[in-house]
Amino acid sequence: MARLKLGVLISGRGSNLQALIDAAADPSYPAEIAIVISDRPEAAGLERAARAGIAHRAIPHPSREAFAAAAAAALRQSGAELVALAGYMRILDGDFVAAWRDRLVNIHPSLLPAFPGLHPQRQALAAGVRFSGCTVHFVRAEVDNGPIIAQAVVPVHPDDDEEVLSARILTVEHRLYPMTVRLFAEGRLRVAGTIVAIAGATPPENAMLNPAERLVSAGG
Ligand code: GAR
């Protein structure tokens, strides 16, 4: 079977891109990366694409419209059928988002709709939440908004700083994004309004408590 062609948009480090590259290195994975596009020429993720022998381009961002037009042309040329934002740190042009509706996904390091926008890990720490995580969702015009496909949860520890929490979330991002792209590639996602139905996926049974139940002694 032909593999789904994936376009990936990045701005920086590209560790989520690397997770997708690693997943697609297995020929039985149902997607392959057709092109990597960065708005920043110095993005380390472009090196990762180069090392993996994947087509990659830096596209300048003089304006949202100009970037979107050039990116759309490059994506079309690559044959991309799904676009994954992997640490793409700018707001996309509205017409681009509309053109790729339900074929454009984003990963964000919080349990949306909590903590959209910049520094979500810092926001989570400031709010004192006991759990955070990451969300993969279909992209809509509003930033970090759109039908949720999948989420992963991590505990927040009392001594966490932004760096430690970000690293803990990142490890689950690297599992969640390839899994979500697989679900899309296998045609198992149906969007109805704000809700995504996933064919043949079983939700987990277990609740997780923080602090852990077994560590709370009677009376403290
Ligand atoms: C990731 O944590 C990703 O979730 C986040 O930027 C980081 C990129 O890391 N994206 C956003 O905050 C988008 N709103 P990476 O370049 O190593 O994949």
Keywords summarizing the entry:
220 residues; alpha/beta; Rossmann fold; 7-stranded mixed sheet; 9 strands
Description:
- The protein is of the alpha/beta class and 220 residues long.
- The chain folds into two domains: 100 residues, Formyl transferase, N-terminal domain (Rossmann fold, 3-Layer(aba) Sandwich); 114 residues, Rossmann fold (3-Layer(aba) Sandwich), CATH 3.40.50.170.
- Helix content is 32%, strand content 23%.
- The protein is built from six helices and nine strands.
- It has a seven-stranded mixed beta sheet, sandwiched between helices. A two-stranded antiparallel sheet has the order 8-9.
- It is globular, with a radius of gyration of 18 Å.
- The relative contact order is 0.14.
- The site of glycinamide ribonucleotide (GAR) has 15 residues, from helix 1, strand 5 and helix 6.
Strand order of the largest sheet: 3-2-1-4-5-6-7
Name the CATH architecture of the largest domain.
Answer: 3-Layer(aba) Sandwich
SSE pattern: EHEHEHEHEHEEHEE
Number of structural domains:
2
> Any idea what the CATH superfamily of the largest domain is called?
Formyl transferase, N-terminal domain
| CATH third-tier fold name of the largest domain | Rossmann fold
Mean pLDDT: 96
Associated small molecules = glycinamide ribonucleotide
Helix segment count? 6
Based on secondary structure, the structural category is alpha/beta
Number of strands: 9
Largest sheet: 7 strands, mixed
Separation, N- and C-terminal Cα atoms: 58 Å
Percent range for β-strand residues: 15-25%
Helix proportion of residues, in percent? Answer: 25-40%
Low-confidence stretches: none
In one word, what is the shape? globular
Instruction: Report the top-level CATH class of the largest domain.
Output: Alpha Beta
Please give the radius of gyration in angstroms. Answer: 18 Å
